[in-house]
Design brief:
Distance between the termini: 91 Å
Largest sheet: 4 strands, antiparallel
Helix content: 25-40%
Structural class: alpha+beta
Strand content: 15-25%
CATH topology of one domain: Aldehyde Oxidoreductase, domain 3
Number of helices: 6
Number of strands: 7
GO molecular function, one term: rRNA binding
Shape: flat
CATH superfamily of one domain: Ribosomal protein L16/L10
InterPro entries: Ribosomal_uL16, Ribosomal_uL16_bact-type, Ribosomal_uL16_dom, Ribosomal_uL16_sf
Family: Belongs to the universal ribosomal protein uL16 family.
Protein name: Large ribosomal subunit protein uL16m
Keywords: Ribonucleoprotein, Ribosomal protein
CATH architecture of one domain: Alpha-Beta Complex
Radius of gyration: 30 Å
Strand order of the largest sheet: 3-6-1-7
Length: 248
């Protein structure tokens, strides 16, 4: 009987010493406690169908069965906001350009290979929202003299305006799982871009409406440009009167 009491008292004080011990004390005894937890339900993706082509398709380096002529530079192709492919259709997430620029064939391959390596193609699906390279860019050889007409076609590019989606991504994954792959692609693009989702696009649209409705500052770019304060028309161009400083 005495031995049982000694054992019980030693276990009690050992447990008490473990609870009251400081952080540097090497505690070895653990007390299990049963608590009530309110866990959120796990999100399921059973309603998402699998497309026929889950991966990004290969884009040709040169347009096929078409004879392209030499063209001017035409920087208007990358000016202003995009009027096409600026909303998510099938995908839940995407990569959207915030400034204009040109995509070469190497950029298409970088996007395709990076996404295929970083994500599981059985769970993540993607599709292009930009066309294959089709705009010819000419270049003269090194060491040639000036003159002699326009050079030969060197490569083909795709013009991308601000607000246009480059790729769409969706599947049986959450947004956090796709961000690392999209962020790696974003850093390698020749123009500025951002990672978007359906929720973020709605929030941006609502935020812009809120700023327009709640704006109390009368000195806006549009008013100063239209009423020509301090003769500012001498320093503005036609695109400033079209988009009022929002796009270049």
């Amino acid at each position: 009987m005495m031995n049982c009491r000694k054992i019980a008292s030693s276990v009690f004080w050992r447990t008490r010493r473990t609870i009251l011990a400081p952080k540097h004390y090497p505690a070895t005894n653990h007390i299990q406690v049963c608590l009530m937890k309110n866990l959120t339900p796990v999100q399921t993706f059973d309603h998402i169908p699998v497309p026929e082509r889950p991966k990004l398709t290969f884009k040709n380096k040169v347009p096929q069965n078409l004879k392209w002529k030499k063209k001017f530079k035409s920087l208007k192709d990358i000016r202003g906001p995009a009027t096409k492919a600026n909303t998510l259709q099938e995908g839940m997430y995407g990569l959207m350009a915030t400034t204009g620029g040109y995509l070469r064939h190497g950029h298409f391959e970088m996007i395709r290979l990076t996404l295929n390596r970083r994500v599981d193609s059985e769970k993540v699906f993607a599709r292009w929202r930009v066309n294959a390279p089709h705009k010819p860019v000419t270049k003269k050889g090194q060491g040639q003299r000036m003159g002699g007409g326009k050079g030969n076609v060197d490569h083909y590019v795709t013009a991308v305006k601000a607000g246009r989606l480059v790729i769409e991504v969706w599947g049986k994954v959450e947004f956090v799982e796709v961000i690392p792959a999209l962020d790696e692609i974003r850093k390698k693009l020749p123009f500025r871009a951002k990672i978007v989702s359906v929720e973020s696009l709605k929030e941006e649209e609502e935020h812009e409406k809120y700023l327009q409705e709640s704006n109390r500052n009368p000195w806006t770019f549009e008013r100063i440009a239209k009423e020509n304060y301090l003769g500012i028309y001498k320093y503005l161009g036609p695109y400033d009167y079209k988009w009022f400083g929002k796009y270049r």
